[in-house]
Amino acid sequence: MAFVTGAGQGVGRAIAQRFGAEGAAVAVTDVNIVAARAVAEEVLAAGGRAIAIGVDVTDYDGVGSAVDSTVTEFGRLDIVVNNAGNVGTDARGWTMKPFWTTEPDEWQSFINVNLFGVLNVCRHAIPVLIEQGVGGRLISIVSDAARTGEPKLEVYAAAKAGAAGFTRSIAKSVGRYNITANSIALGTMWGPGYAAMDCEQLAERMKPYLIRRPGQPEEAAALAAHLASAEADWITGQTYPLNGGISTS
Ligand SMILES: NC(=O)c1ccc[n+]([C@@H]2O[C@H](COP(=O)([O-])OP(=O)(O)OC[C@H]3O[C@@H](n4cnc5c(N)ncnc54)[C@H](O)[C@@H]3O)[C@@H](O)[C@H]2O)c1
Predict the structure, then answer these.
(1) How far is the CA of 86 from the centre of ligand 1 (A)?
(2) pTM over 0.70
(3) Domain spans of the chain?
(4) Is the minimum distance from the CB of 83 to ligand 1 under 6 angstroms?
(5) pLDDT grade for 249, boundaries at 50, 70 and 90
(6) What is the distance between the terminal CA atoms of the chain, rounded to a whole angstrom?
(7) How far is CA 12 from CA 26, 38, 87, 97, in A?
(8) CA distances (Å), 194 to each of 141, 146, 218, in order?
């Protein structure tokens, strides 16, 4: 049984679809309940099991209720994917500007969603996993910016680095319960912004990538599925780059 945050579109949607296709019941959660419902419908239409839950990962109590209703619906919890994130924009539409031109209130949404969101979900999910006594999987979707840094996205990078550091640390705490915890550090993924680019713009944007295209959400879902599988029983405390080779160590 998988609980996926930010599953209403993009990478989270692909993860929900993949897990559903592999037979896991999926709690498709998103702050956008309309989007979550649509993805849950897709999973159901493909023959899987799913429920949609509207929840903001920054709402500690709301996340607790979402975990509770998931366990009530499916009777258990096995896999938790912390995918919800805000990729360099906040509610005010702020996108990539020098850190020294920003104000403290502009940092909040990056830290709240990308770091506190992960803490909120893990705080509620881990006691359930421990209580069940059969292990479990925690997967955090972070960014290559967490490993290599990113100019004009310093606060986002810091929040993602925090999430990756937390995930490594929690791996050390929950390993004795056979719960694994790993992060996937994504490079640029395909999204609507790229559809609007012409070939030249796309080629320019992709120059730093050894494989010169954005990643596909399904590629992230494939790695998440592997980390969630029995084959990955002995993989924990790791941060996996999935980035077309934009960084190589
Ligand atoms: N797209 C990229 O190029 C890229 C690169 C590196 C890392 N990432 C990370 O991968 C993850 C998925 O990215 P994506 O491109 O699919 O993002 P996206 O913006 O396409 O989708 C994110 C989803 O999360 C939901 N969400 C946002 N804030 C939320 C909140 N507070 N509570 C619950 N749900 C919330 C949104 O409604 C949306 O459905 C994010 O954590 C992102 O930071 C993305």
Answers:
(1) 5
(2) yes
(3) 2-242
(4) yes
(5) confident
(6) 33
(7) 11, 13, 13, 26
(8) 21, 22, 16
Per-residue pLDDT tens for 2-53? 999 999 999 999 999 999 999 999 999 999 999 999 999 999 999 999 999 9
The answer to whether 51 and 40 are in contact (CB under 8 A) is: yes
∠ Cα 224 91 167 (to 5°): 30
Residue 193: its pLDDT value, please?
73
Whole-number Å distance, alpha carbon 226 to ligand 1 midpoint, is 20
Residues 6+ apart with CB under 8 A from 17: 39, 42, 43, 46, 221
Among residues 5, 4, 118, the alpha carbon closest in space to that of 60 is found at: 118
Instruction: Choose one of 5, 15, 31, 206 to mutate for the ligand 1 pocket test, by most ligand atoms within 8 angstroms of C-beta.
Output: 31
Which pair of tokens denotes residue 9? 């579109």
Of the candidates 186, 207, 205, which has an alpha carbon nearest to the alpha carbon of residue 197? 205
Question: CB of 161 within 8 A of CB of 201?
Answer: no
53 CB within 6 A, ligand 1? no
User: What fold does the segment set 2-242 form as a domain?
Assistant: Rossmann fold (3.40.50)
Q: How many whole angstroms separate alpha carbon 33 and alpha carbon 3?
A: 15
Distances (CA, A) of 179 to 1, 24, 33: 14, 17, 29
For residue 232, give both structure tokens: 């990955």
Q: How confident is the model at residue 89 (pLDDT cuts 50, 70, 90)?
A: low
Q: What residue has token string 């990756």?
A: 164
